[in-house]
Write a structure and sequence with these properties.
This protein has 472 residues and is of the alpha/beta class. The chain is built from 12 helices and 19 strands. The longest helix is centred in the middle third of the chain and has 28 residues.
């Protein structure tokens, strides 16, 4: 679990900065989402689910999972993707961790102080780049309000509700369609110091209260679970092990799921860019697209927006304003050269918020949250932080010069939970805003949205998981 308690002294230092930012954000015009609060109208009487043409925008793990479940419910599904294949953007080289117990909003008590604490350190898990972008400051203003303890608890509960459901959906799918995607079991959190252990106590209390299986470990016990830690530069002060959590290659999984979808009749249109949503009379009618073959309008009885950080731009002209902002994350993937000195599964460096994941014969180190740069460009300081974490814990597992670096733009909401379901426009649906936990929430989110499109009752409560939470 993310550790959310901060040192009081640092909080005091951060207080002035916190107030300045919140005041600046409040001075900007606050745009409230303009959405129709009424329920989505039913399908026309001549449309059945077997003939219901549905378009899904985006072929990341979220979009492909949505297409899979829509097809299961009998819909005629087409997926539109601007890239040449599935999972080539945010789903491509993420940490690969599926840890519902760790699903935690970044808006947490003490987090503003933590940003200040790491502001001038060379190895930092958090990077803030202030700009003149009004959308950035509105998002930050909302994010700061969500850092209150009461809001944090509510938001975490919402995220875990969809994450645990999603893991159950994943296990069900895997039982029916076994395939390889570098899966490993167990998740070990490493604490560098007694200070980190102290900060962990509130998170441990939540684990105990929820009855989530876990083990608190000393350094030697960490090495018993991950023998490669015997070669660490310094032994961990302690650890926390969640045996039921897991990891796997998100991109490999998405490619396999695409193959299943295609065998069932789902169509994928790659190299196709969505220029606008076709909405007339308050109802979604399809999408306008461009490709090498020119411009055209594709009609549909329902449209699902699962286009990651680009979703906000597609929705804004329709008056549907969603508080999404791109938060960059980085990863490095390296080939293992010594099995004995490499990790067996997935770990998290709690101090630097960086994951180390075993993916078959490779290692992936992923971390850093960078707010303020919308471009998918690599930042050398962030890459150095990744390699430092690997060298600290598994210095002989791989050769740093072999690293393949990646950066992704994660679509974050201020409170951490995704936006699922009705958009406020009839037959236009949302599956967006999963942030850094998209892989952990993908199957459950896809299933929920498919149920709503097919006018079925979802299996979980959607309170706090729809755009309606931003109405107040």
């Amino acid at each position: 679990m993310t550790l959310v308690q901060a040192v009081g002294a640092i909080d005091a230092i951060a207080g002035v900065g916190y107030r300045i930012v919140i005041i600046a954000a409040r001075c900007l015009p606050q745009k409230k989402p303009r959405v129709n609060r009424s329920r989505q109208r039913l399908l026309p009487s001549d449309v059945t689910f077997a003939s219901m043409k549905t378009i899904v925008l985006g072929a990341g793990v979220i979009g492909v999972a949505t297409a899979f479940y829509l097809r299961e419910r009998g819909c005629d599904v087409t997926v539109i993707e601007r890239e040449t294949d599935v999972a080539l953007e945010t789903s491509f080289a993420n940490a690969g961790v599926i840890a519902p117990g760790y699903a935690t909003p970044w808006a947490a008590p003490g987090m503003p102080a933590k940003i200040l604490k790491y502001l001038f350190r060379p190895a930092s898990p958090l990077i803030f780049r202030p700009t003149l972008d009004a959308a950035q400051w509105r998002w930050i203003g909302r994010w700061l309000r969500e850092c209150e303890l009461a809001r944090f608890r509510v938001n975490k509960q919402r995220m875990q509700r969809i994450a645990y459901y999603s893991r159950a959906c994943l296990h069900e799918l895997r039982a029916a369609h076994p395939f390889e995607y570098g899966r490993s079991e167990g998740y070990l959190q490493l604490f560098r110091s007694a200070y980190d252990v102290e900060l962990a106590q509130p998170a441990l209390a939540i684990l105990r209260d929820a009855g989530i299986p876990h083990r608190e470990l000393n350094g030697a016990q960490c090495a018993a679970i991950e023998p490669g830690l015997r070669w660490a530069r310094k032994a961990p002060a302690a650890g926390l092990y969640l045996p039921d959590d897991e990891a796997g290659d998100c991109a490999a999984f998405t490619r396999e799921l695409r193959a299943i979808c295609e065998r069932r009749g789902v169509r994928f249109r790659f190299d196709t860019r969505v220029t606008a949503l076709d909405v007339r009379g308050g109802t979604a009618r399809g999408v306008h697209v461009e490709s090498a073959h020119g411009s055209e309008t594709l009609t549909a009885a329902a449209v699902v927006v699962a286009a990651g950080v680009d979703s906000a731009g597609l929705l804004a002209p329709l008056g549907v304003r969603v508080p999404l902002y791109p938060v960059k994350g980085y990863s490095a993937t390296l080939q293992i050269i010594d099995e004995r000195k490499a990790p067996r599964a997935a770990l998290m460096d709690e101090a630097l918020k960086t994951a180390i994941t075993r993916l078959g014969s490779n290692l992936r180190i992923a971390g850093t949250a960078e707010l303020g740069d919308r471009q998918a460009t690599l930042r050398e300081q962030s890459l150095r932080t990744l390699l430092k974490v690997l060298d600290d814990w598994f210095p002989h597992a791989s050769v740093p010069s072999s690293a393949q670096f990646w950066v992704g733009r994660r679509p974050m909401t201020p409170d951490g939970a995704p936006l699922l379901g009705p958009s406020g426009i009839d037959h236009l649906w949302l599956n967006i805003g999963h942030g850094s936990t998209g892989w952990a929430m993908a199957l459950g989110s896809g299933r929920v949205v498919a149920d709503l499109v097919a006018q079925k009752r979802p299996e979980i409560d959607l309170d706090g998981l729809t755009v309606a939470r931003y109405h107040g």
